[in-house]
Every structure is written in structure tokens, then in C-alpha cells.
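Check my protein:
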Amino acid sequence: MAWPLLGIPQSELPVCCVLADVFVLPSGFGPWDVVVNEAMCFGLPVSASDKAGAVPDLVHDGVNGFVFPAGNVELLADRLRRVLSDEDTRQRMGVQSHGIIEHWGINETVCGTLQALDYATARSVSVAAVK
């Protein structure tokens, strides 16, 4: 399996992430971009467009990276200059990325799925009661 768009075999992902200073995802669309999760596991700051599906949940603007409007190359360049020119900021954001993604495991996924089912079931019952 290759890392999307780059053609990098998944087995080489750790080396790429260890060598990287920041992860950038300038997508115009993405339902959920697992590459964001993977980059965060390696403690990388993330700069991603507002159209990448994982961004609302995983990228906290100014905390563990930056969010920019898709297609806004000037803002992306500005954000990259900021994070690449300041080692302390880059390190702090990387630590935040790792801390955030530590809470995105199978247990959290199961709990979230169960909460969604509870919500959907309760909602459908209350809608049926109104009819």
C-alpha cells in the first residue's frame, strides 16, 4: 500500500515522517485523511486545508498546526514559513499533535460509534413519538 499521492510504500512511512519537519495536506477534498493521523503519530505539526476531512477533529489551528482555506497558497506559504522558521513552535506543535492523536484509538472509536448509535436511536424514537 502506498502513501496517497506520493507513491511511497507504507513500509517506508516511518523514515519519511522521521525526516520531516512538518506535514502538509493541501487537499481540495477528503472524507477522512488517515495520513493526518499517521503524521501526528510521529509528532509532526500539520498544515492542512479546511477541506480535508480529518481537519475539524484533529488539527487545532495554532496548537498542533495550521488550517488554511483550500487553494490559498499565500496563506499556506505564510504558515509554513512560521512553523519552519521557529524550532520552538515546531517542537511544541509536534508534541501537541502526538498528544491529540494518543486519544484516537480503537477504544475511542468504539465509544464514539456507540454514542452515535445511542443518539440515532433516541432521535428516531422521539421523531416517531411526534408523528
The chain has six helices and five strands. The helical segments are 13-19, 34-41, 55-58, 73-85, 87-101, 106-130.
